[in-house]
Amino acid sequence: MNTQSQGFEAVFGRAPEGQAAAPGRVNLLGEHTDYQGGFVLPTAIPQHTTVTVARNGTGQHRVYAADLDRQAGFAVSGADMAELPEFARYVAGALTLGGAREGLDVHVHSDVPMGAGLSSSAALEVAVLRALRGLGVYGGDDVALALAAQRVEHEFVGVLCGVMDQMASSLADAQHMLLLDTRSLDRRVLPLPAGAEVLVVDSGVPRTLAGSGYNTRRAEVEEAARLLGVPELRDVQDVAAVEELPLPLRARARHVVTENARVLQAVEADAAGFGALMNASHRSLRDDYEVSHPQVDALVAALQALPDVFGARMTGAGFGGALVALVRTGTAASVGAAAIQAVGGQGQVVVPAQT
Question: What positions does the domain GHMP kinase C-terminal occupy (predicted)?
């Protein structure tokens, strides 16, 4: 029986006890700075991951991913991560850190694109923890929940991510930007620049964080900070200081230092100024951090050439995935379609959501 389009009751044979959802996110500025204590500026996207749960009275958790039409089961007492499919590792980690001590049936449905750099994993982690909170199993507030979700990535999936994705999924909304200091976790909710809206395009080039250069980049900037004698590159105020480093550490550190500065400048920028900072961010990610992809670069260039676009860049960890643009209000759908046509039809508009 094909259960792909079926809900919780069809899969597990009884009614659920609770449900929770969490959004994906797109980062407007501040890429690859959160694991160096830096500043980030994400916003939530309209797409969500929804988790429906019920206790099952056994010592086993059962998970069904509707969008993959896959099931997995593992003991409440602990699971061998190597034996679980990737989607189930996120759920297993969240259930463990969320304090689930009795078996749960978990149904997952998501319209957050996977492999596009829009934090489908963070949305899943946050949604599971929110569902546990709804059952009275987990008691953490929104910040504690985000930190627990980050631990899932570190301890159960093996991705040494910063905290931006989980904080954005837990705290952001799709109408505002979240200015986040990832060291102190101080944050402010800010409006988008006047006269502008967000466009997100999936390049169609999938990427996986654990199998990409993400952990390598993190190790490189940690070594750069060590050589500069600072706890994190967040503490470097003058970009000239990184020029004494050997390559590629010099280029990696230059990106982080200049990207932090761009986020702080963007807070007071109008749409044109914000867009210019996005364009500069893409150049830095492409040339200094080397995490872009030719197909992403082509889409970014196509967007930047259009008159209604203030600025555009890759977003997320890179090596494929999505790109984000700030465009004139009311033009996002048409601008996205024009850019995709300009590169031969490769790519898909994610925001505004397609109906």
Answer: 268-342
